[in-house]
Design goal:
Purple Acid Phosphatase, chain A, domain 2; Bis(5'-nucleosyl)-tetraphosphatase, symmetrical; five-stranded mixed sheet; 277 residues; alpha/beta; Calcineurin-like_PHP; single chain
């Protein structure tokens, strides 16, 4: 398919905003346009079911990597985790086509690489080059697509181990990969992930840096596209793009065209209090 490619930030169940984005003249002008979604298609917003169905209806025009909220939906469907009060997943879980929706979601990738752009939901560890990211993502993807996918989800919760070792096995290995690709924000300069610190961008304590500023990151020569970090907001550097602009918190839903960095943003009604993130 030869259309332009629009890279889109976290939708989180804000289907009305997604519909406005897809109908925007700059986006709708290309009937062959493709859409890369940076994960977190669902949850916290008011229309998670409609969002999932809308993106599925795009067929091969849509690529979506799994985010932490998408994995949380899978865990809820598997009976591994109960939805919390702030979750908006019940409509999906009760839908007549719930089994098909969950099956589609668990077959999404955790990383997508094309045109020298690597899309993940949250980030990567500094030691991993693109080939390694794709190989490790595939390990998790095979587990989620297999007959024992529910058991794989039981192993993903927790913050440890905080760093990568090649000899990690089983649940530890799965957890590190998932945490890096779907949850990471800050880490130490030597690549240890840190999840307890939640401060405004630039206010992080000494000894912590954004994952993308770790020295000698192996992916620094390709463009990484990610979401997940709404307080960071839109960030566009030569080899780095953050697209989470807090749609569900009353910010914007952001799309960036790959070939020329054309920006389209849709203002969003606040569905959740940012302090609840």
């Amino acid at each position: 398919m030869t259309g332009s490619i629009w890279m889109i930030g976290d939708v989180q169940g804000c289907c009305a905003s997604l519909d406005q984005l897809l109908a925007h003249p700059d986006v709708a002008a290309d009937p062959d346009a493709r859409f890369w979604f940076a994960g977190d298609l669902v949850n916290r917003g008011p229309q998670s079911l409609e969002t999932l169905r809308r993106i599925i209806a795009l067929g091969d025009r849509a690529v979506s990597v799994l985010g932490n909220h998408d994995l949380h939906l899978l865990a809820a469907a598997a009976g591994v985790r109960k939805p919390s009060k702030s979750d908006t997943l019940d409509e999906i879980l009760r839908a007549p086509d719930a089994a098909d929706l969950i099956d589609w979601l668990r077959h999404r990738p955790l990383a997508h690489f094309e045109h020298e752009h690597l899309m993940v939901h949250a980030g990567v560890l500094a030691k991993w080059d693109v080939e390694k990211v794709l190989a490790l993502a595939d390990e998790v993807q095979r587990a989620l697509r297999g007959p024992n996918w529910q058991k794989a989800l039981q192993k993903m919760y927790g913050n440890e181990p905080a760093n990568w070792k090649e000899d990690h096995k089983g649940g530890k290995r799965l957890r590190v990969i998932i945490n890096a690709l779907t949850r990471i924000r800050l880490c130490t300069p030597n690549g240890h992930m840190e999840f307890a610190t939640k401060v405004a961008p630039g206010a992080w304590p000494a000894g912590l840096v954004p994952w993308f500023d770790v020295p000698n990151r192996a992916t620094r020569d390709v463009t990484i596209v990610f979401g997940h970090w709404s307080t960071l907001g839109l960030l566009v550097r030569p080899h780095l793009v953050c697209l989470d602009t807090g749609c569900v918190w009353g910010g914007s839903l952001t799309a960036l065209r790959l070939h020329d960095r054309k920006l389209v943003q849709i203002r969003c009604a606040q569905s959740q209090d940012p302090r609840g993130e």
